[in-house]
Task: structure prediction
Amino acid sequence: MDKYIIKGGNQLFGEVEISGAKNAAVAIIPAAMMVDGVVRLENLPQISDTDKLLQILELMGAQVRMVNPSTVDIDCSHVSLSNKIFSLTRSIRASYYLIGAMLGRFGKAKTTMPGGCNFGVRPIDQHVKGMKALGASISIGRGLINAETRDGRLRGARIYLDKVSVGATINIMIAAAMAEGLTVIENVAREPHIVDLANFLNSMGADVRGAGTDVIKIRGVRSLHGGTYALIPDQIEAGTYMTAVAAAGGEVRINNVIPRHLECISAKLREMGVTVEEQGDAVIVRRDGPLERANVKTQPYPGFPTDMQPQITTVLCMAQGTSVVTEGVWDNRYKYVNELRKMGAEITVSGKTAIIEGVNHLVGAPVAACDLRAGAAMVVAGLCAEGTTVVEDVVYIERGYQDIVGKLRALGADIVAVTEPDEPEQERRRENAG
Ligand code: EPU
Result:
């Protein structure tokens, strides 16, 4: 789909099912490459990032079979390195996990620098530092990454991450799962999908302990065996629907969530006058009064997630008074603010801080999805704006949100997806999304 057309003003009512976690899926699919036997993944989100990773495994020789739309069997018995994957690996961020998985599986790796959303410099120095500590030699040039071990197997090591990095933590965990001996990674990220990856690896026979704390210990094993694993629900997809209700008003039961993963978001929404009730594996979100101002600072988990920053900023546009949002993870994650301004938002950005003066309402306008979460924020804005909002470049949104249009329509939103004949520029964007 190319764009969404949203007629704002409808409150949201009903129930929505949250899909499996994108950022868990994009780590676990590459990790499946190291498994001898068939890996069955359940609760897999149907999004373009996971499609691309499955295609990459297929190009490497894996058998990939969809059992149903959210369950896949992956058999990597006959995979090998291949240059055919390069155009896909260039188009998504998570392709960097192939480095750890290939090193674990083959003792060598060959891929490209990753793509992904552009919010400033996205270095991979901590990934490289980790792989080198495990005994790989790495060369990066002309957009290609080549890694090798001397005798085909990584060796456990003690690694201190200079920066709390989700990606580096995951990549090193994957690589170390089959390294010889003990790996200790310190100052690691603690996001729910890191625990999910550890649980996946352990259920295939790995020995990973401490995920969810800031030290992870991995005792390498010789081989991993097949099995079935169900992914956790997506924290950010759930959070996005929570902000959609906060912005548009109404009452929605959000099913298939782990409420503990949402605590930082629930607490902030409550502070803003939104009701959030936990009920088993659901949260019920209700907003029937005015929104209060709040300050938000994004931080690694369990802090407020950076991947919810554009959506919460959008809701704060409708709050009474002045709110301050501070981005604590990325250097440049406010590009979407220009789009919100087109809708009447009053936001001033200075470095990593955005100051938001609440306005009574936003007004529909043509806007673009600058990246995945920025795109989600445009949808949230469109739902509560007066008049019609056209969100362009939704290919970014479809990287990470399964059927966002269908799910919102079921809640009463007036949103439609429109496809236009491909033009060269759209084709280029489609290639580079991820
Ligand atoms: N960093 C380094 N060196 C590294 C790696 C990271 O300096 O080697 C810095 C980054 O520049 C950033 C900070 O460390 O300032 C955190 O980056 P992190 O490595 O945690 O981010 P990532 O692994 O590249 C993942 C998610 C992002 C999410 C961040 C933070 C995936 C595929 N991506 O990125 O998700 O924003 O963690 O939680 O898992 C999204 O889903 O929209 C998205 C962008």
Observations:
- The pocket of EPU is lined by residues 23, 26, 93-94, 117, 122-127, 163, 165-168, 189, 306-307, 329-330, 372-373, 400 (CB under 6 Å).
